[in-house]
Structures
1.
Amino acid sequence: MIWASWNEFVAMGGYGLYVWGSYGAVLVGVVLEIVLLRRGQSETLKRLKRMQTWEKQ
């Protein structure tokens, strides 16, 4: 497709809200997934360290 201007590209033939909204929703989901995975990883590592120190006692 060829658009005459950036405004037409953003509008996507009248479907811009759906297209860009979908991209935005996916981006939010991916960022949220990364944040939650990192948080879970750090909590798991802390738990493993506590378990190791408990076993040494």
2.
Amino acid sequence: MTERPPRRQRRLALGVLLAAAALAVAVFPLRSAWWGGWILAIAEAGIVGGLADWFAVTAIFRRPLGLPIPHTALIPANWELMAARVGTMVGSRVLTKDYVAQEIARVDVTALIARAAERLTSRDFDVATRELARWLAAEMSPKAASDVITRLRDLLLDRPLAPALAAALQMVRRHDWDQRVVTALAGSLAEALDRPAFRETVGELVDDLLARYRERMGVYPRFWIGVASLLGLIDRERVLSALQAGLRQVAHEPAHPVRQRLMEAIGELPGRLRNDSRLAERVEAAKRDFLATPIATRVIDDTAAALHRTLLADLERPRSEVRIWIVERLERARRALIADEDLRRQLDRWAKARVLEIVERHHERIAGFIENGVLALGPEGAVRLIEEHAGDDLQYIRVNGTVVGGLAGGLLYAIHLLLRLL
């Protein structure tokens, strides 16, 4: 609970008022003398001025002496209107586009960027990257991961896959990540085949592929495939088990022929994706067909989970390749910011333009936000807040009222005496 403001100023105001009252009592017997009447007039006027200002100051916050006097306790009675007016004033008259433009024009963003870039080091980037990765890993809930997968599917459907796939494969090859990607993909698919739901979905896909393959074959080969199926030589479970065993071998054997062929294909594929329009069309068709099947979500989910685990494991290593890659880019950007003054000016203009856009776009929201903040205080909270920040000055008003009232009373009595002499 917030404490009330110090009472020292209140005691001072009350002390001055009581001093005026004591002075009036002391000189009352001497009022017949000109000087006694003059001092009594000063004291009486001071008492009237002090009491009037006490009433005025108290009426702002509460009812004086608890009496239901009209137009008192102004803040508690009008705090909702006050909140609306404060919000309108700040949001519509203070935080205007012109005012914000003038204020941010005084901020030298280029100098701030240069100083910040000079103080940062590669170690700072490394520590920040590691901590950010840990935080993301801890905050990534299953629902958030599911939302990411859904958005990834929408993105894949909306944009051509071939150019993005070619760029991604080139980056993977350039940083020697292709071995790890193949290991993660093969390992995650082999692991996923242990789950009944995923295995059933893949089994249905295998049955569908075998059926399509038989339709394209001649009568004689189709006959022998049918015989092999009746004898149990071609069976869904056999195919799935062989597929799972093969994936595990690919994941654990660096010299596996399939892995080597995949490495070669990854090296050749970027150029083919960019130059072969028919291949790009087939990739788009395969993408649409694949994303339309139930297996797509499970495959993407399992692949993302495997890559997530691989990425986290790499980030925790003392010589993390991903972390080194990120730190190198950040260090390169830091040096560019230090050396390139034109780049800093561009960032300065961009940052200030974005601030103006935010103020202009959310102008009404700012006023509403301030109004809601004042409303949340409640009448007692509003009174306490104003007393904490302006209470001392208001108490000095009482002191000034007593002093100025006394001086005014003394001046009027002196004029009265002068007129009597004349």
